[in-house]
TrEMBL record:
The entry's keywords: Aminotransferase, Lyase, Pyridoxal phosphate, Transferase
GO terms of biological process kind: carboxylic acid metabolic process
Family annotation (Pfam families): Pyridoxal_deC
Entries under InterPro entries matching the protein: GrpII_AminoAcid_Decarb, PyrdxlP-dep_de-COase, PyrdxlP-dep_Trfase, PyrdxlP-dep_Trfase_major, PyrdxlP-dep_Trfase_small
Molecular-function annotations in GO: aromatic-L-amino-acid decarboxylase activity; pyridoxal phosphate binding; transaminase activity
TM segment ranges: none
Residues found modified as N6-(pyridoxal phosphate)lysine: 240
Protein name: Aspartate aminotransferase family protein
Cofactor(s) it depends on: pyridoxal 5'-phosphate
Annotated family: Belongs to the group II decarboxylase family. Sphingosine-1-phosphate lyase subfamily.
Length: 488
C-alpha cells in the first residue's frame, strides 16, 4: 500500500524528538534508567520484544508462550528470593506500581475475608515507603497510617510498627531498600512483631531485590526476603536491575489463596470470560519477553558480575561525597542508591545545599535527582537530599562523575539553599480547595515563573523549595497542573 509518509522519514522524526531527551545510555542520567552498559543485551532485548510484538498477554491459553515466559520469570524470582520456601507462587505485572497495588488489593481482600468486615482496613507504611503505596491506599480506599522513620538511619523502627498494629491493619510494608535513601528496613524484626499480631508484611524489593542477593556481604546480612516467616508477599522490578525495558515486574506470595485474591474474574457479561491476574486487560508481552531473554542470557553469574560493578561504583561515589566538605551521605545505605544531604556539622559558609549541587552538576552534564525535605509526623525532619541511582555503567564513568560532583560542590559551597518566597507561601495557604481550578492553578504557577506549558530547563532548587513549603493538597494540585499543561 502507499504510505502517506515513508518509514525513513517517520523514524528520522522520532530520532529528532528523542534528541531532546535526557541521555538514556552512558551513565550521565542517575535515575529512571538502568543501563547495564552491554550493547548485546540491549540488542537481545529488542529482538526478543520484536518476536512478542503481535501477542496479547490477555489470554495465555491462546498464547501459551506467554504462560511459559511468565512461569520462567516467577520461577527465577522464587529461586532467588524464596529459596527452599514451600508454596510460593506469583505473577508478572507491568511494573513496580502495579505490583504494589496488587499486593495491597490482595491484603485488603484477605483482611475482609478473614474478618468478615466490609469496611476499610489500614495500610501501615514508613514515611520512606514508595509513593506507590500512597497511590494504592488512594485507589483501593484503605486508611493510610504513615510511621516516621529513624531520622538518622531512615529505617523503619520495629517498635513503632508494633505500636501501630490493631485489628484494622491489613498489611505492613517494609522496603529493601527504600527508594529515597537506600535504607534497608529491618524486615525480620518487623515481620516478627507483625506475625505476633497475625498481620502480613509486604517486602517492597522493587528496586533492591534484584541486586541485594548479589551485593557484597549478602551472606552475612540477615534474611529480608520470603525466607523470613511473616513475609507474605514481595515485589521486584525487572525493568530496573533486571535490565529489561519498562513494563515488567514480579510479585510473589506465600500461599496460593493470598495470590488468588489479587485476581479478578467475571462471567457476568455476554463477552469472553474475563480472568485477569493483573490490572490491564489486553496487555503487551514485549517487555516480558525482553526481560526473560536478558535473564536467560545473564543467569545468576551475569547478575552477580553486574552487581559487582554497581557496588564498586557506589562505594567510590560514597567516598567522594564523604571527602567533599559540606555534603554527607544520609544514613548507611545498602545497595545501589545514595541520598546526599548538607553536612550540618561544618560552618555555614562551607555547607553545600544538595539541590544547588544537583543544579551545578546538571550544568556539567550529569543529571541527579533532587528530593524535597519533609517533616515527619513525630516532628523530626528528613533533610532535603539529592538522589543517585548507581547502575553497572556508572563504573565506566565513575572517575569523571566523581570529579564533576566535586567541581559542582565547589561551585555552590556557601550558597544558601533556595527558600520559597514568603508572600507566595502565605497566599498559597489561603487557597481553598474549591478554588484549585485549572485556570487558577496556571495563574499561580505563572506567579513563580512557571509559565503554563513551559518545560523545566532552569534550576530545580527553587521548584523543590516550593514543593517543600506549600501545603500538600496545593502542591499536589499545582504539580498536576504543571505536568498536564506541559503534556498539552
Ligand atoms: C521504582 C519503585 C517502585 C515503583 O515502581 P515503578 O516501576 O516506577 O512503578 C516501588 N517501590 C520502590 C522501592 C521503587 O524503587
Amino acid at each position: 500500500m502507499d504510505f502517506e509518509r515513508t518509514p525513513a522519514d517517520i523514524l528520522a522524526q522520532l530520532d529528532e524528538l528523542r534528541a531532546a531527551d535526557a541521555p538514556t545510555a552512558g551513565g550521565h542520567l542517575l535515575s529512571y534508567v538502568y543501563d547495564p552498559g552491554v550493547a548485546e543485551l540491549d540488542d537481545l532485548a529488542s529482538a526478543a520484544a520484536r518476536k512478542a510484538q503481535p501477542l496479547n498477554g490477555l489470554d495465555p491459553t491462546t498464547f501459551p508462550s506467554v504462560a511459559a515466559l511468565e512461569r520462567d520469570l516467577v520461577g527465577l524470582a522464587r529461586s532467588v528470593l524464596a529459596d527452599g520456601v514451600d508454596g510460593v507462587v506469583g505473577s508478572v505485572t507491568s511494573g513496580g506500581t502495579e505490583s504494589c497495588l496488587l499486593a495491597v488489593k490482595s491484603a485488603r481482600d484477605s483482611w475482609r475475608a478473614a474478618t468478615g468486615r466490609e469496611d476499610r482496613p489500614t495500610l501501615v507504611i514508613g514515611s520512606t515507603a514508595h509513593a506507590a503505596f500512597i497511590k494504592a491506599a488512594h485507589y483501593l480506599d484503605l486508611h493510610l497510617r504513615v510511621l516516621p522513620v529513624d531520622p538518622d538511619t531512615c529505617r523503619l523502627r520495629p517498635e513503632d510498627v508494633a505500636a501501630a498494629l490493631d485489628e484494622t491493619v491489613a498489611l505492613v510494608v517494609a522496603s529493601t531498600p527504600s527508594y529515597p535513601h537506600g535504607a534497608l528496613d529491618p524486615v525480620s524484626e518487623i515481620a516478627e512483631v507483625c506475625a505476633a499480631q497475625g498481620v502480613p508484611v509486604h517486602v517492597d524489593g522493587c528496586i533492591g531485590a534484584w541486586v541485594l542477593p548479589w551485593w557484597p556481604g549478602a551472606a552475612e546480612r540477615p534474611d529480608w526476603d520470603l525466607r523470613v516467616p511473616g513475609v507474605a508477599s514481595l515485589s521486584v522490578d525487572l525493568h530496573k536491575y533486571g535490565y529489561a525495558p519498562k513494563g515488567v515486574s514480579v510479585l510473589l506470595y506465600r500461599g496460593r489463596d493470598r495470590h488468588r485474591r489479587q485476581w479478578f474474574a467475571t462471567s457476568a457479561w455476554p463477552g469472553y470470560a474475563v480472568v485477569n491476574p493483573t490490572i490491564l486487560g489486553s496487555r503487551t508481552v514485549m517487555p516480558i519477553a525482553a526481560g526473560w531473554a536478558v535473564s536467560q542470557a545473564l543467569g545468576r553469574s551475569g547478575f552477580e558480575e553486574l552487581t559487582g560493578q554497581i557496588a564498586r561504583a557506589a562505594q567510590q561515589l560514597r567516598k567522594v561525597v564523604d571527602a567533599t566538605e559540606g555534603l554527607r551521605v544520609v544514613g548507611d545505605p545498602v545497595g545501589p542508591l545514595l541520598a546526599v544531604a548538607t553536612d550540618p556539622d561544618v560552618p555555614e559558609q562551607c555547607r553545600v545545599d544538595p539541590h544547588r549541587w544537583a543544579d551545578a552538576a546538571k550544568d556539567l552534564g550529569w543529571v541527579l535527582q533532587p528530593q524535597p525535605g519533609r517533616r515527619q509526623s513525630d516532628g523530626t525532619e528528613l533533610p532535603r537530599t539529592t538522589h543517585l541511582t548507581v547502575t553497572p555503567v556508572t563504573e565506566s564513568v565513575v572517575g569523571e562523575l566523581g570529579d564533576a560532583l566535586v567541581t559542582a560542590a565547589d561551585t555552590v559551597r556557601g550558597v544558601p539553599g533556595a527558600q520559597a518566597p514568603a508572600d507566595f507561601v502565605a497566599a498559597a495557604r489561603q487557597i481553598r480547595p474549591e478554588d484549585l481550578t485549572s485556570e487558577n492553578c496556571a495563574a499561580v504557577l505563572g506567579m513563580v515563573g512557571l509559565e503554563p506549558g513551559g518545560g523545566l530547563d532552569g534550576p530545580m532548587a527553587e521548584l523543590l523549595a516550593l514543593i517543600e513549603a506549600l501545603p500538600e493538597p496545593v502542591a499536589e494540585r499545582l504539580l498536576i497542573e504543571f505536568l498536564a499543561r506541559f503534556m498539552e
